[in-house]
Each structure stands twice: as C-alpha cells, then as structure tokens.
Amino acid sequence: MINCYTKNARLTTILWCYFYITLGTGLAQQSKQYNWIAPPPKYQLDQEAMDDIKGLGRLFLPAMTNSDFEPVYTIFQNDTILKTQRMGKSVFLRPGKYSIKFGSGTLNQMMKKNIQIQAEETRIIEPDWCGLTIRIIDETRNWLKEPYEIYCLPAGEAFGIGYGADEQLGENLQTWILKPGLYKIVKSGEHVNTYINFATVRLLPGDLTQYTIVMDSDTKKFTGAGILESEIEKRSATNWTTYSALYGSFTLNRANNLTSSEEQTSMAFVAQLDYNIKYSTNRHFFLSRGLIEEGWNMQAKQSSFRSYLDNIRLKNTYIFYFLSGLGLYGRFFLETNMFRSTYYYDEPKTVTLFDKKGNLKEKKFNVDKVIVAPNFSPLELKEGLGINYSLIRSLRANFNVRVGFGYRQNINWKLYSKDAESDTAFFEKNSVYLRGPEASLLGNLRILRNMMITSELDVLVPSGTNNQLVYDWENNLNLRLSKNISIDYTIRIKKDPSIISYIQTEQILLLRYSFILF
Questions:
Q1: Domain with residues 41-124, CATH architecture
Q2: Does residue 378 have a cis peptide bond before it, meaning omega lies within 30 degrees of 0?
Q3: pLDDT digits over 420-446, tens only?
C-alpha cells in the first residue's frame, strides 16, 4: 500500500508539474497577445521587407497603429542625434551603445532607453509603453473634429492638445505614445482640476487603448466617455472601412411679385447619395467613392418638376506603395446621367435634328420640348496608370501628386448639341477616344475645426492630331454647422474640346441635411 501510494504521489506530482508548466506557457503566450490595430512586431518587420546590411545592426520599434500618425523616435550617441525614424520602421546602426527617446510630449517627457547594438543583429524593442487613441463622436455617432487636452495624474503634467478625426473624409486618429499610468482628458480650455467635461483612463504597459468621448453636438460638452466595443478598430477588420450618407435640401417660395392678387409658387429639391469604401494597409490602398446627385425644380410657369441636376460619378483608385509615400497607382472613373436630357421651349417651335455627318435626320413640328440625350448618355470613362507620391500626410492636410498615362472614352450615344446660332437646330455628336500623358493633384486642408477644403485637378495631354489640353478641376468647401446640417459649396471647371469648345463651369451651393446610412 505504501509503495502504491508513493507511485501515485509521484504520478500526481508529475501531473501537477506538467499542469503548471503548461499553464505557465499558456499564460506567457497570452501575455504576448497584442490588442493593437497594427500587426505584432515580427509581422511588421516581415511586411517592411528590408534586407539586412552586412556589418550593421538593426533597430526596430513597432507601431501600435499607423506609423504615420504616431510620434517618431530619435536615436542618440554621446548626446548627438544620429537619426529620427517613424515607429514601425527600421534603422540600421553600426555596433555600439546608443540611447533612444520616443513618445508624445516634449523632449523631457519622452521615454528613454539605453541599448547595445551588435553586428548583424535585429533588435526588436518589446513595448513596455502604452498607446492611446481618442475618437470623438456625437450622440448620433457622427465623427467630430473637436480639440481636447491630456494630462498625467496625479501631478497634472500637460502632454498637449489633440483632435478628433472626421474619418468619413479619410482622416486618421492621432496616436499618443505614453508611459503607463492614469491620465485625464479634458475639453480644450478647461482647467486640469475641472469637475466637468473630463474623463480619465488608466493605460497599461504594451496595450493600445481605443478611447471614445461622446460630445453634445450643439454645446460640445462631454456627455459620455469610455471604451465602446462598436468604436474599437480590430486588426482583422480595420483594413476595410465603409461610409454611406444621404443628403437632401428643399426650397419652397410663394410670392405675389407680379400682381397683388395672384400668388406664384416655385419649388426645388436636391438629393445626394454618397458612399466610400476604403481598404488601407502599409502597402496597399484602395478607395471607391460614388456620388449620385439629383435635383428637380418647378418654376411658376411650369406644370411639373424638371430635372436641373443629374450626375452619377464613380471613382476607383488603387495604390501600391513600394516606398513610404511613393507607389504605383491605377484608377477607373465613370461619369454619366441617370435620366434623359430635355431641352424646353416657352412656346411650341419646329425643331430640326441632324446626324453626325450634318445631314438632315428628323424634323419635329410644334413641340415645346426635345430630347437631346437618352438615359446614361453621355458616358465618360477614365483610366490611368502611373506613379503616386504623397507629399503631405497629416491630421490637418493631405496632398498627393500623380503622373502617368491616361485614357478617355466619351461615348456619346444619341447625344445632340444645340447649334450656337439657333435654338431649334441640334447636331448629333460623335464618340471620342483619347489617350496620352496625365497628371493629377489631389489635396484636402482643414482650416478650422468645422471647415474642410478639398481640391482635385485632373489633366490629360492627348496624343495624336488633337493636342489641346483636357482638364477637370473640382473644388469643394464644406462648413459643418451642426451634427447633420452643413453648407456645401462646389465649383467645377472643365475643358474638353472633344465635347464642347468652350470652358464649362458649374457652381453648386447647398444647405445640406445629412442622414448616415451605415
């Protein structure tokens, strides 16, 4: 019995030892799990795809989110600055002793590490620091570009001012890199000891905390704060983002301007459907944007609504970055009309239609309107391939330059243009196909917290006999008044001699009410 008990005791001891070893290994593996938006350090190193350099060592500080929106780190040797690099990017160094400073705040507030680099060694600094992103939304989940200030407790040390991001415009949240501890976030302008408009968060070593502050859309006061599961970006889902919104405006005017006894009514209605689908990694960027604009009005002398704004635009762009900010782009754009185009007369007239060769095709007697284009005509297609260079990528501004080779197809199916000297003669237009060198300038700039300017210039130099410049320049100013109401002003300048000989201009001023679909 004693021997049997001893054997059982030994067996039990072995099982318990195995259990503790297994449990310890599991806990060790669990402690290395990352709740970052960016991949784990070793995956980041693989994605960087940089070869080692013989005789040099390699230093790597991983990024928790997007390296473009995290503070840089600086390498010192004997108090001399050798190199400044982004988080998530490698630095090659000669063997020796170095010190690195990194993190948010002033130079004195940054964290410091002393390291030894060996020849042909890859030194990955395992994060013992913390990451913090602060998303600001209103009660209906609209993103707000509102300022806040962050302090370290209990000393009340200020680390600076940050801003929320309007993510539907492609803006990215700022990532704070901080020491572990307790931090207080207050509305910009409030004192560190305020008892209103504040929130606190405790940051743990190696963790990324994705924090959300809810503001009242009118008063801009804090109404809630914390970690919302619905607002957390997960690594498996963050590559894709979608946004869709419906905008509308309505105008009604009733007045007796002509006679005292007769009132006349005019109405106008505009609807816009806007969507964005984006895929973004360190190497790949894809953006698909669609905009459908429809407007109808009814003037005093009209018996029904007439279309005055009819536009469908689809823009798809893909960029492969082979260097930071430098990559290959490919794009496909489409622009057309949803409904047929009609030319109206105040009184019946006789209209003459000519074919593409200028021969008489049809004559219409005593008509008060004539259809000059069917549905989805004209159809304008654009394709391009070339080099994309991102000059500016920041929270306040973005600016890209693209140079390459482009193609245009203006498919004019049953499209008629009015004669310059007569409003009763219409000539059928030919389809046009162009190709040649192209260039694009794209940018956006936030001037105030609620004002955004975007601009896009697209130029083509057609090869062959027709060498006249073709360009399309669109500028937009958006001023957000409240969570769902904004003023939107768009001016578009277009020149395409293959369609119309003169420069086309279009201006649209809207007071828009937006409804977020998803």
A1: Sandwich (2.60)
A2: yes
A3: 888 899 999 999 899 999 999 999 887
